[in-house]
Amino acid sequence: MASRNARPLLGGIEAGGTKFVLAVGHSPQEIVARETIPTTTPDVTMATTAKWFSQHGPLVALGIASFGPVELDRASPRWGHITDTPKPGWAQTDVVGPLGRALACPVGFDTDVNGAALAENAFGAGAGDGSLAYITVGTGIGGGLVLDGRPVHGAGHPELGHMFVRRDGEDFDFPGICPFHGDCVEGLASGPAIKARWGKTLSELPADHPAHTYVAGYLAQLCHTTFATVAVDTIVLGGGVMQTPGLIERVRERTFAIGAEYLPGRSRQEVVAPGLGQDSGICGALILAERAFEGETD
Fold this sequence. Notes:
- With 298 residues, this protein is of the alpha/beta class.
- 32% of the residues lie in helices and 22% in strands.
């Protein structure tokens, strides 16, 4: 323990709706210990998290990359909160405050997908590029954006999964499952949407099932719109649904077909899998910790 703590330790949390991934490291690329705990109630999850870090510290800073929506405006009294999430029991939960007090260190806070985007842009699939979008396709569909090395914040944070897409010419029977928007891309192409419609995961459906065409087409529209609106170099597609064999190739092909050789900079644009595999989110959380330690506030 003494040898490990001879250098300052950063803490990172990839806070998901199903599990919290916890890690400590000397840098985002040098993790020395990690743990995964279930996301239960806020009180239990936060207490378990604080106890684990107290046993693996002391920390010089903590970074939290959280499921959302979250409040990122530091001028708001709700900064550091998960806000209007559909996750039962977690709406309006203060995540930063209790952990910052328990661990007595500065805290960096952002969305889980912005964290993953930071990591992939720093030393993953988009290393060396000026801009990147990380889109996760799983229980929901979320997207984080990094431009010039900085995560994109504005009035809120990007919610790419709630863009509307043009329905396939033969696909009008399913209304979508998003409780807010019905047939936004999350309502049509997320894991629960696929299961609600066809009773199976995309990987369990035959390769010639129309679900593959529909889902790839809707995700391709999301990618094209992202390229067209924010002109990123790289789109990284992660999440459980993207583990479906052949899906990323279908999405990539359809994305550039939709583009029709029009978009400026298209020769630099690519649609790829995460370079960091399953570690994009936790590495991003440690980047947030590193920036908090250095005094950066976004």
